[in-house]
Inverse folding.
C-alpha cells in the first residue's frame, strides 16, 4: 500500500454567502432601535454617506401601503406634539423617576453602618433574588455554600432583610409574609397566629365553626381574628415598580380604512441615508486621483447598504401583509380570533425560506387596532376540534381560560377538570394537564389558591 501526498481536483456544490447577502440578512433581523444604531455607525464609518433626520409624521405618510378586501374594527389614536403654542412646557415631557423595590431596599441597606462587608454582600444578593411578590425563594444551604459562610449567618441576614420596609418583604411565601406582619403589629392576636399558620384555606372558605370547635373558642372570636387578618397586606410590594420603562417603536402599523387595511412599514424614526454628490463629482472630475479607488469602494458599500434597506422594507411589508391576510379573524375580533399559523405557512405563501420569515419577524412589533403585539405572537400552534377540521390556537385557548377564571365564583373557583369539561362542551378536547400548563403560563394559581381570602 502506497502512502503519500498527491494533488487532485474535486468539484463540489456549496452555498457561499456574499458580503452583500450577509449584510441583507443582518439588516433584516434588526429591530427598529437596533437598525437606528447600525445606520448611525455606518454613517460614521463611511465618509460618502450623508445622514439626515426627517419629520416623523411626513415620512410616516410617505411609506404607507394599502391592502384591500380585509375588514376589521376601527380604533383611532391621537397624539399631541409641539406646535409652537405658548403653553408648551418641555419640563412636562420628562418621565417620572419610579422607585423600584430593589432601589428602595438598597437605600435602607446603605444606612445600616454596623454590617460587615460580607453581610452587606449577602444582603445585596438576597435583595436581587426577590421575586415579583417580594418573596425570597432561595435555599439557605445553597446560599451559605455560595458565599462560604454558615447557614446561621444566612438566616440572620434573611431576618435583617425581613426587618426592612415594607414589612413582609423577604418572606418565603404568603403564610410567612402574614406571620412577619403579625409579629411586627402592635396588637398581639394569638388566634390570628394559629389561623395563619394552619387554617388560611379554612378562613377562605369561611369554615369558622370548624376552627372554633378545634380551639374551643366562639365563632365570634374566629370571625374577629379573620377580620384582623384581612387588615394585613398579602402583597406588600405591589406598589413598587420592578421593571424599568422600555419604549417600543412599532415596526409596522395596521389601521382600518373604508377600503380595507392601511399597512405602514415604519421608517419614520430611522435616519435617511444618501450618497454624497460631492464624492461622485470628485471622481468624475478627477479620474487620475490617487484616492479614486478608496472613494469608489466606499460608494459601492453605500449602494449595497441602501439596497439592503430597500429589501428590508419590502420583505417586512410582504410578511406583514400576508399575516394580516391570514389572520383576518384576529383583526376583526381581537385575540380570540387568532388562528394557528406557522412560519412555514407564510414562507410557502411568499415562496421564501422559513429562515427569512424568522428573521423578518424577530424582535419586531406591530401596532394593530387591538393593541401592540410582537409579530412572533401571530405564530402559534393549535388544537383540533372534535369531529371538525377547524383548529383553535393555543393563544385563543389561553385567553378563554383567562376570561373563564375572571368570571368564576371566587368562593368555588373552577378546577382544571371543570375547565376541561367546559372546553369539551364547546367541542374541544383538552387534557387536564394541558389546562394546568396553560394556567401556569398565564401566571394563574390553582383553584385552591384562587379562593377569596
Amino acid at each position: 500500500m502506497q502512502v503519500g501526498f498527491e494533488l487532485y481536483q474535486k468539484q463540489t456544490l456549496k452555498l457561499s454567502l456574499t458580503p452583500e447577502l450577509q449584510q441583507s440578512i443582518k439588516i433584516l433581523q434588526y429591530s427598529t432601535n437596533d437598525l437606528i444604531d447600525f445606520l448611525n455607525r455606518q454613517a460614521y464609518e463611511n465618509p460618502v454617506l450623508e445622514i439626515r433626520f426627517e419629520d416623523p409624521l411626513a415620512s410616516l405618510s410617505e411609506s404607507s401601503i394599502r391592502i384591500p378586501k380585509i375588514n376589521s374594527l376601527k380604533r383611532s389614536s391621537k397624539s399631541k406634539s409641539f406646535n409652537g403654542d405658548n403653553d408648551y412646557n418641555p419640563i412636562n415631557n420628562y418621565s417620572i423617576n419610579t422607585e423600584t423595590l430593589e432601589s428602595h431596599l438598597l437605600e435602607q441597606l446603605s444606612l445600616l453602618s454596623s454590617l460587615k462587608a460580607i453581610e452587606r454582600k449577602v444582603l445585596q444578593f438576597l435583595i436581587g433574588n426577590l421575586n415579583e411578590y417580594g418573596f425570597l425563594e432561595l435555599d439557605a444551604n445553597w446560599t451559605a455554600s455560595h458565599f462560604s459562610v454558615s447557614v446561621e449567618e444566612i438566616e440572620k441576614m434573611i431576618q435583617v432583610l425581613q426587618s426592612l420596609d415594607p414589612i413582609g418583604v423577604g418572606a418565603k411565601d404568603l403564610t410567612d409574609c402574614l406571620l412577619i406582619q403579625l409579629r411586627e403589629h402592635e396588637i398581639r392576636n394569638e388566634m390570628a397566629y394559629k389561623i395563619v399558620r394552619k387554617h388560611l384555606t379554612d378562613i377562605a372558605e369561611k369554615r369558622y365553626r370548624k376552627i372554633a370547635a378545634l380551639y374551643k373558642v366562639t365563632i365570634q372570636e374566629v370571625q374577629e381574628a379573620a377580620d384582623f387578618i384581612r387588615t394585613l397586606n398579602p402583597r406588600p410590594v405591589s406598589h413598587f415598580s420592578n421593571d424599568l420603562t422600555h419604549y417600543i417603536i412599532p415596526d409596522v402599523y395596521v389601521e382600518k380604512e373604508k377600503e380595507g387595511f392601511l399597512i405602514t412599514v415604519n421608517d419614520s424614526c430611522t435616519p435617511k441615508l444618501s450618497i454624497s454628490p460631492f464624492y461622485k463629482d470628485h471622481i468624475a472630475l478627477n479620474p487620475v486621483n490617487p484616492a479614486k479607488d478608496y472613494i469608489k469602494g466606499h460608494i459601492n458599500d453605500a449602494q449595497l447598504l441602501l439596497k439592503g434597506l430597500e429589501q428590508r422594507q419590502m420583505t417586512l411589508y410582504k410578511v406583514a401583509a400576508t399575516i394580516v391576510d391570514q389572520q383576518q379573524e384576529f383583526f376583526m375580533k381581537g385575540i380570540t380570533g387568532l388562528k394557528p399559523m406557522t412560519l412555514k405557512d407564510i414562507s410557502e405563501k411568499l415562496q421564501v425560506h422559513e429562515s427569512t420569515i424568522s428573521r423578518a419577524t424577530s424582535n419586531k412589533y406591530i401596532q394593530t387596532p387591538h393593541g401592540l403585539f410582537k409579530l412572533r405572537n401571530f405564530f402559534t400552534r393549535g388544537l383540533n376540534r372534535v369531529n371538525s377540521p377547524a383548529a383553535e390556537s393555543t393563544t385563543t385557548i389561553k385567553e378563554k381560560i383567562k376570561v373563564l377564571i375572571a368570571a368564576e365564583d371566587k368562593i368555588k373557583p373552577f378546577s382544571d377538570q371543570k375547565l376541561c369539561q367546559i372546553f369539551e362542551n364547546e367541542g374541544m378536547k383538552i387534557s387536564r394537564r394541558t389546562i394546568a400548563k396553560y394556567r401556569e403560563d398565564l401566571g394563574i394559581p390553582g383553584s385552591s389558591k384562587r379562593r377569596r381570602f
Remarks:
- The two ends are 86 Å apart (CA to CA).
